[in-house]
Automatic annotation (TrEMBL):
<keyword id="KW-0479">Metal-binding</keyword>
<feature type="binding site">
    <location>
        <position position="28"/>
    </location>
    <ligand>
        <name>Ca(2+)</name>
    </ligand>
</feature>
<keyword id="KW-1133">Transmembrane helix</keyword>
<dbReference type="Pfam" id="PF05875">
    <property type="entry name" value="Ceramidase"/>
</dbReference>
<feature type="transmembrane region" description="Helical">
    <location>
        <begin position="145"/>
        <end position="169"/>
    </location>
</feature>
<keyword id="KW-0862">Zinc</keyword>
<dbReference type="GO" id="GO:0005789">
    <property type="term" value="C:endoplasmic reticulum membrane"/>
</dbReference>
<keyword id="KW-0106">Calcium</keyword>
<dbReference type="GO" id="GO:0046513">
    <property type="term" value="P:ceramide biosynthetic process"/>
</dbReference>
<dbReference type="GO" id="GO:0046872">
    <property type="term" value="F:metal ion binding"/>
</dbReference>
<feature type="transmembrane region" description="Helical">
    <location>
        <begin position="120"/>
        <end position="139"/>
    </location>
</feature>
<feature type="transmembrane region" description="Helical">
    <location>
        <begin position="235"/>
        <end position="255"/>
    </location>
</feature>
<dbReference type="InterPro" id="IPR008901">
    <property type="entry name" value="ACER"/>
</dbReference>
<feature type="binding site">
    <location>
        <position position="36"/>
    </location>
    <ligand>
        <name>Ca(2+)</name>
    </ligand>
</feature>
<dbReference type="GO" id="GO:0046514">
    <property type="term" value="P:ceramide catabolic process"/>
</dbReference>
<keyword id="KW-0812">Transmembrane</keyword>
<feature type="transmembrane region" description="Helical">
    <location>
        <begin position="66"/>
        <end position="85"/>
    </location>
</feature>
């Protein structure tokens, strides 16, 4: 699947020996302090999107499942930057193993959105599967084992997320409650755009692997800097998959809100407050989404407990 890189094409002397079992199409050590310049820097977008998601989790009190998902994005981006910056085997594991276990976090977030947490057997599966893939991969050091194991998990994640979208995000004329996010409000746009970004970026990465030596390397040498950085397919894979993951997680937040809306309505009715309503807001010219949910929304069942705890604590403090 991966091209065998020719180290003689590097434009600078290797600052340290590379021990990774894969080496992508980008020239190595074009700068002395990074093994792969573009592939390292493009991971910053994944880290930034994950950090932004964590800020939204704190701002809107998303469920804990989404904290784990965005934390996984940050971990994957950091591990990938370390790997591409060093091309050592140890750093490669810090890139690929978070991808496996991070995808488990995505599957945890996507499945059974109407429940506080998925069934125990599902959670056990999400722990056992990546552990088994890791054991086989590390024992044999066959990159294909990781690639197949990860691809299967990514595909299942998209299927589970799509199922939630189809079930809980309905057109306005089929939605019986005003508090639900509908298709017309962009509820399904998040997932379709996210999957398109992820799959499109993967196609670019596969094409790079297929045509690295025959087409891409000669093309990069012909155009030179700075335009050659636009031909680094693995860098585009980082940008597209990171953005796609952020949108897919945001779609899961919408699904979670809609799936637990009845619980939200009952809670609000008891409190005599208006029914909760979520809103999808796009920033940066329609590129970056923000799912705005009510503070008392059951999107975060643990968040409601936290709010109640804060209220009780606040009352006690006032009494004291």
């Amino acid at each position: 699947m991966q091209p065998r890189h020719d180290p003689n094409r590097s434009t600078a002397h290797h600052t340290w020996p590379t021990t990774a079992i894969v080496d992508w199409c980008e020239d190595n050590f074009t700068v002395w302090f990074l093994a792969e310049l573009v592939n390292t820097l493009t991971n910053l977008s994944t880290i930034a999107l994950g950090a932004y998601g964590l800020l939204l989790c704190r701002k809107h009190h998303y469920s804990a499942r989404f904290y784990w998902s965005f934390m996984a994005m940050v971990a994957v981006g950091a591990g990938s930057a370390l790997f591409h910056g060093t091309l050592t085997y140890e750093a490669q594991l810090l890139d690929e193993l978070p991808m496996l276990f991070g995808t488990s976090a995505f599957l945890y977030a996507a499945a059974w959105p109407e429940r506080k947490r998925p069934p125990s057997w599902w959670m056990a599966t999400l722990a056992v599967y990546p552990t088994m893939v890791t054991a086989v991969y590390v024992a044999g050091r066959q990159e294909e084992v990781f690639q197949i194991g990860y691809t299967l998990m990514a595909a299942v994640t998209m299927v589970v997320a799509a199922w939630g979208n189809l079930k809980y995000i309905r057109p306005a004329n089929e939605s019986t409650h005003a508090g639900l996010v509908t298709v017309e409000q962009g509820g399904r746009t998040l997932l379709t755009r996210g999957i398109a970004s992820y799959v499109g970026a993967t196609c670019i990465w596969v094409a790079e692997n297929m045509y690295c030596h025959s087409h891409l390397i000669p093309a990069k040498e012909a155009v030179g800097y700075p335009w050659r950085v636009l031909l680094e397919g693995h860098g585009w894979w980082h940008l597209g998959t990171g953005y796609g993951c952020a949108l897919i997680i945001a779609s899961m937040v919408v699904v979670r809100h809609n799936a637990t809306w009845k619980q939200q309505q009952q809670q609000q009715h008891k409190q005599g407050a208006p029914q909760p309503r979520a809103e999808l807001v796009w920033h940066w010219g329609g590129l970056i989404p923000e799912v705005v949910v009510p503070l008392t929304s059951a999107v975060s069942l643990h968040g409601m407990a936290e709010l109640k705890h804060r209220d009780v604590t606040g009352v006690k403090a006032k009494e004291e």
